[in-house]
Amino acid sequence: MAIGISLSAALLLAEGAYRLWKGAPLWGVGDDAAQPRIDCGNRFDPDLGWKPLPGLKGINGEGAPVAIGADGLRRNEGGWDERSPAYLAVGDSYTFGDQVGDRESWPAYLETLLGQRVGNGGVCGYGVGQAGRRLQSLLQQDGAAPQGILFGVIPTDLWRTQAKAFYGRPKPYYSLENGQLAWHAEALNVGPPPTHPTETLSFMDRHSLLWRALPSPTALWEKIQTRIALQRGEAHANAHEQGPEVACAVIVEAARAAKQAGRTFHLIVQYKLKDVILRDKLERGATTADADQDAASVAAMSRVMSCVEEAETGADVLDSYPMLHKVWREQGMGAIAALYHDHMSAAGNRMTAQWIADHLRGEAAP
Q1: How far apart are CA 63 and CA 83, in angstroms?
Q2: CA distances from residue 235 to 42, 241, 301, 324 in whole angstroms, order as listed
Q3: Which end of the chain is more exposed for a tag (fewer CB within 10 A), N or C?
Q4: Which domains are assigned to the chain?
Q5: How far are the Cα atoms of 130, 146, 305, 312 from residue 259, in angstroms, in the given order?
Q6: CA separation (Å) from 271 to 113, 140, 154, 295, 349?
Q7: What is the pTM of this model?
Q8: What are the pLDDT digits (tens) for 41-77?
Q9: Interior CA angle at 346 toward 343 and 348, to 5°?
Q10: CA 88 to chain centre
């Protein structure tokens, strides 16, 4: 009994201290706190593994707004959300805009620059195969008639493309069978993760600002499961070793489908900050053996770009490395670091959107 009272008192003191620090009322949750932490808004999907849940609204770990529209696309808050997008972007967390708000992803900035809706179909954690599969699904929605496809990738996606387990959870993937792409989602047939005890702590979610500032119960549970999987060596597992080859095949297939439908197709190649540094080393003579798996992925990304260009599908390959490298070399490490958190910052996404917009405008010029 005494222990329970002491624990309750300690929690109340911690809650009060947090509210004073944040300048929040000592009672109630307020409008801001009414937003649950949803991070990227992903939920189980029996074909893709996971994808944003339509209609979900909340905040990410940085407290920035995250809203998913009825069509499953991230809302850009630009006034175009109910219209069929002129451009449809797919990809991973760099496309989705992890760690920034709805208006700060590069698709959102691009939408403002072009004055046309840019649908944000990025999904955190996706490999190239999942992004390609999601593109097919989005194009089947009623009224979907984009004039162009923006397919975002980073070097890490090539490894994800060949993985069958990602942070301890089953992941679907493509393989090449006799030169043809084959989709494997059998491991997902067990259904969504079961409800676990932490999801019953809704009282804390309704009344505690301190609790809301922490990762969601679901996220905490997933982190625990991931940690266990990492210790067991089960967090990541490859289905095959053909990530780059499969990635090229997926992108080429998507580009050909776009061409047949009369759409433009643009491959948007982005990089983590460490990838920019690694590619600089590779171009100055380092080998992948001198570095690590990240360097191997960066080297493979260059091969994938060449593979896509050689397929002669009309795909437009936009490589952001020259732009990023120029910032680093001319303005210093501080300047390029400002373009990133772990993912790209709002400033990095704004620069990326301007770069894409300039390219698209030049392409449309007479």
Answers
A1: 28
A2: 19, 17, 24, 32
A3: C
A4: 42-192+236-364 (3.40.50.1110)
A5: 20, 12, 18, 11
A6: 22, 30, 5, 12, 12
A7: 0.83
A8: 999 999 999 999 999 999 998 899 999 999 999 998 7
A9: 65
A10: 15
